[in-house]
Amino acid sequence: MALQEELKTQGDFLFRYRSYLPFCILPLFILVILTSETYLYCDGVYNTSLVIAAIFVGLLGQGVRIWVAGFVPRDTSGRNTREQKASVLNHTGLYSVCRNPLYLGNFLMMLAPIILLGNWLFIVVFALSFWLYYERIIFAEESFLRVKFGQEYIDWTLKTPPFFPKLSGYIPSDMDFSFRSMIRREYNSFFGLTSSLFVFHYIIAVIVNWQRGGV
């Protein structure tokens, strides 16, 4: 199988199971706590700044997803996991500055609980792992969109970066913001963000307390 077909096959597979990535991170998260210093409790002092940073990054990611969800056209992939679909090519709003704003939001939201560790090496490892995971999904999606929309899609990619936003290219959406669409699409992600921050914080506290002999 040629490399392009292999990447697309992997991307289609990962696309269907992309919601499970956080569960893959949890064992590594626990391993890092057990084998390295945890800066949330540094020398017995609670590091409030790490918590604030984690919440800020998480809410920033959630804000990106809310912005996208409020303006998203019908019949696009969104939370769909079975197959690629898109009835229109969305190139306004956040899609005018970044081709994958939902994945940018995902990255920030998944990064948030990892920040609680204060372990910069693990943050770098997570960022690289996220990119290796999602680049295949993006490749599969872009293969679909290239076939679906042809030159219109190619023209859009030439002026819009895949991940890191180019704010100077922002084009306002021609749709009204839909609170109904936003809530319907994003209540799960908000619950996931809040619960992951709570669970990861709790795990750190329990393990640190255990390492100190229950003090």
Automatic annotation (TrEMBL):
It is found in: Endomembrane system. GO terms for biological process: methylation. Its EC number is 2.1.1.100. It is a multi-pass membrane protein. The keyword Membrane applies. GO terms for molecular function: protein C-terminal S-isoprenylcysteine carboxyl O-methyltransferase activity. GO terms for cellular component: endomembrane system. PANTHER family: PROTEIN-S ISOPRENYLCYSTEINE O-METHYLTRANSFERASE, PROTEIN-S-ISOPRENYLCYSTEINE O-METHYLTRANSFERASE. This is Protein-S-isoprenylcysteine methyltransferase. It comes from Helicobacter cinaedi. The lineage of its organism: Bacteria, Pseudomonadati, Campylobacterota, Epsilonproteobacteria, Campylobacterales.
